[in-house]
């Protein structure tokens, strides 16, 4: 599709000295056919229009991309979007172009002709949004020499902390390239970030007094449960029982690529439509698997943590972990793929003492810590300690996750620990809620629980 045919700017408002929220709403109506923004979207968009930096922590379903896409259409120059995965870039660019927006991306999967076509569009100011991975920033600098960049958006910004230190060091250099671009207003967006990660993002991107937008991480429709098991065979038996009693789509996370094949084979043997997914499969196979998961022909995806980011299937009813992730934010992100439609869903973990021993070994094997690496290792250790607390606790699991993510909370009605406590003390009066998050949960525990959790949570409880 020729870029010139695409929607490039909002002509009616382009002459205005500084676009307003009313202009943004006009764009929302014209391009997305929506009439109003949500509160947090409004704040993020206003920050961009006022040329301020912004850090937005918006959990699943928060409508993150609109926060930078709408300002991109109102600002005269280019918006550069840093995105971690090619599939994410492709999805967003395809969706934008369908709406007539001049968006493009650069990736190693494109032909030279495709890339040079996109770069010409950038140089000739025919593009409003350009998606790139951080690894491409260095080579892009030449092409952006004469192109004003009005907004830099860093999507999935937790990658700066999570991946930047080990696998993708270019994430740590975004701040430097931002300075080379003349320090355009920058919007960092993420679904999960601990207080430490937020500090790291601010520092790495060199944000100046950013507008900080935080939405609660709590998702009252999710039920959290964990159970220790003695050995792998028992873990698999329990997984099978759980998948038999819970209906609907499920993701089973396993620690290694080999296990994806093994577990999927066993599940198929017992009549469950399961397929394995990991990053070692060819791109075409992964695309095919994803399509089968999205259209429902695969009920259970048995996957490593490579499966998930950017996968937006609303009706996943169960996310089951056969192992212990190293950090609560990773767990929260993976588990948070359940119940995006708001209906009851469950996040269950079957763990062994061996899982914890392995995670500890992995941590102590990481290279000799000094300086920056020491901070990373301390942070990783703190993360693993929180995960160990999560699986071993006799208290509320949800509270441990939310506290780690910087939210204060009290007992809930949506985890195995709180439910068993309440079942043992049916006449116990509910504790006084301390926050808005908990108020909702307390209300559900004192009255209308059945409408909240339906049958699914009880089925999970019966197995866990
Ligand atoms: Zn609880």
Can you lay out the helices and strands and say which pair or pack?
Blueprint: H1 11-14, H2 21-32, H3 39-49, E1 54-57, H4 64-74, E2 78-82, H5 86-98, E3 103-105, H6 112-123, E4 129-132, H7 137-143, E5 149-154, H8 159-162, H9 174-180, E6 186-190, H10 195-205, E7 211-214, E8 222-228, H11 232-245, E9 249-253, H12 257-269, E10 274-277, H13 283-294, E11 300-303, E12 316-321, H14 328-335, E13 345-351, H15 353-365, H16 371-392, H17 397-404, H18 416-424, H19 436-446, H20 449-453, H21 456-463
Parallel strand pairs: 1-6, 1-7, 2-4, 2-5, 3-4, 5-6, 8-13, 9-11, 9-12, 10-11, 12-13
Helix pairs in contact: 2-4, 3-4, 11-21, 15-16, 16-17
The structure holds zinc ion.
Characteristic key phrases:
single chain, six-stranded parallel sheet, 464 residues, Rossmann fold, alpha/beta, binds zinc ion, disordered N terminus
Give a verbal description of the structure.
This protein is an alpha/beta fold and 464 residues long. The chain has 2 domains: 3-214, P-loop containing nucleotide triphosphate hydrolases (Rossmann fold, 3-Layer(aba) Sandwich); 222-248 and 315-416, P-loop containing nucleotide triphosphate hydrolases (Rossmann fold, 3-Layer(aba) Sandwich), CATH 3.40.50.300. Helices cover 46% and strands 14% of the residues. The chain has 21 helices and 13 strands. The chain has helices spanning 11-14, 21-32, 39-49, 64-74, 86-98, 112-123, 137-143, 159-162, 174-180, 195-205, 232-245, 257-269, 283-294, 328-335, 353-365, 371-392, 397-404, 416-424, 436-446, 449-453, 456-463; strands at 54-57, 78-82, 103-105, 129-132, 149-154, 186-190, 211-214, 222-228, 249-253, 274-277, 300-303, 316-321, 345-351. The protein has a 7-stranded parallel beta sheet with strand order 3-4-2-5-6-1-7, with helices on both faces. Strand 12 (316-321), helix 14 (328-335) and strand 13 (345-351) form a beta-alpha-beta unit. Helix 11 (232-245) packs antiparallel against helix 21 and helix 15 runs antiparallel to helix 16. It is globular. Zinc ion binds at residues 396-398, 411-412, 415, 417-418.
């Amino acid at each position: 599709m020729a870029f010139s045919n695409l929607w490039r700017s909002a002509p009616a408002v382009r002459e205005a000295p500084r676009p307003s929220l009313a202009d943004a709403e006009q764009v929302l109506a014209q391009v997305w056919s929506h009439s109003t923004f949500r509160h947090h979207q409004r704040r993020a968009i206003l920050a961009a229009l006022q040329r301020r930096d912004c850090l937005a922590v918006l959990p699943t379903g928060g409508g993150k991309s609109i926060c930078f896409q709408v300002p991109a259409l109102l600002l005269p120059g280019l918006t550069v979007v840093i995105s971690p995965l090619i599939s994410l870039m492709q999805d967003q660019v395809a969706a934008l172009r369908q709406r007539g927006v001049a968006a493009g991306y650069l990736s190693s999967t494109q032909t030279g002709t495709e890339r040079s076509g996109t770069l010409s569009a950038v140089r000739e100011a025919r593009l409003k949004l350009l998606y790139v991975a951080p690894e491409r920033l260095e080579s892009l600098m030449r092409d952006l020499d004469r192109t004003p960049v009005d907004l830099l958006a860093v999507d999935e910004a937790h990658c700066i902390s999570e991946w930047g230190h080990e696998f993708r060091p270019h994430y740590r250099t975004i701040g430097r390239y931002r300075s080379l671009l003349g320090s355009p207003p920058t919007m960092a967006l993420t679904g999960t970030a601990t207080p430490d990660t937020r500090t790291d993002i601010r520092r790495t991107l060199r944000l100046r007094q950013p507008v900080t937008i935080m939405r609660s991480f709590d998702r009252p429709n999710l039920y959290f449960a964990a159970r220790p098991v003695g050995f792998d065979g028992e873990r698999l038996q329990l997984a099978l029982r759980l998948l038999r009693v819970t209906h609907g789509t499920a993701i089973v996370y396993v620690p290694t690529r080999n296990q994806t094949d093994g577990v999927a084979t066993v599940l198929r043997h017992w009549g469950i439509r399961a397929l394995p997914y990991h990053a070692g499969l060819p791109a075409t196979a992964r695309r095919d698997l994803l399509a089968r998961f999205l259209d429902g022909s695969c009920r259970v995806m048995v996957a490593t943590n490579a499966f998930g980011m950017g996968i937006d299937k609303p009706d996943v009813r169960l996310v089951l972990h056969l192992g212990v992730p190293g950090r609560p934010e990773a767990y929260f992100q993976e588990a948070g793929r359940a119940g995006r439609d708001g209906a009851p869903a469950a996040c269950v973990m079957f763990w062994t003492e061996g899982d914890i021993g392995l995670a500890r070994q992995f941590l102590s094997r990481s290279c000799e810590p000094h300086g920056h690496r020491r901070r990373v290792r301390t942070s990783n250790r703190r993360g693993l300690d929180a995960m160990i607390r999560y699986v071993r606790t006799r208290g509320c699991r949800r509270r441990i996750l939310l506290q780690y993510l910087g939210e204060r909370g009290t007992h809930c009605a949506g985890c195995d620990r709180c439910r068993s406590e309440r079942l043992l003390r049916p006449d116990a009066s509910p504790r006084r809620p301390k926050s808005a998050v908990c108020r909702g949960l307390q209300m559900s525990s004192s009255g209308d629980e059945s409408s909240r959790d339906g049958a699914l949570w009880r089925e999970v409880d019966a197995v866990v």
